């Protein structure tokens, strides 16, 4: 997943980027072991990653906020994926965490407490804590 994130952007370069994106994508596979360790162990999210760019792009299977797409459609899609996994004798896990309102309406301390009670601990919990601190949106 991390490699996909590192290489999925368009190879364009902004003068403010410290590393040209084309070069970064070329060396991403070599950087992957180090980036993975940093992400998995630090429990820290850099400030640059905490600014959301709000847009109106919807995923093809998104059900919320789209005309003629209901909760039922979302449930059908999830159920189909679970049934396909079961037929293929695969395990399935569904984790739902809606962070869309986390910027301005959710009490972050309560959210972190709930995550802790649900078993999210260690670097995963610290990652959420870091992500929720100092957020902004455009």
UniProtKB/TrEMBL annotation:
It comes from the Eukaryota. PANTHER family: REVERSE TRANSCRIPTASE DOMAIN-CONTAINING PROTEIN. This is Reverse transcriptase domain-containing protein. It comes from Electrophorus voltai.
């Amino acid at each position: 997943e991390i490699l996909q994130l590192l290489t999925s952007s368009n190879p364009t370069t902004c003068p403010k980027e410290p590393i040209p994106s084309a070069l970064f994508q070329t060396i991403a596979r070599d950087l992957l072991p180090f980036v993975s360790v940093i992400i998995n162990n630090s429990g820290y999210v850099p400030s640059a990653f905490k600014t959301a760019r709000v847009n109106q792009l919807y995923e093809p299977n998104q059900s919320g906020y789209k005309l003629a797409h209901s909760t039922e459609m979302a449930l059908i899609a999830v159920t189909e994926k679970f049934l396909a996994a079961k037929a293929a004798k695969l395990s399935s896990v569904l984790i739902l965490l809606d962070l869309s309102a986390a910027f301005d309406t959710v009490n972050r301390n309560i959210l972190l407490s709930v995550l802790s009670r649900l078993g999210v601990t260690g670097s995963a919990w610290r990652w959420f804590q870091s992500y929720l601190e100092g957020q902004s949106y455009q």
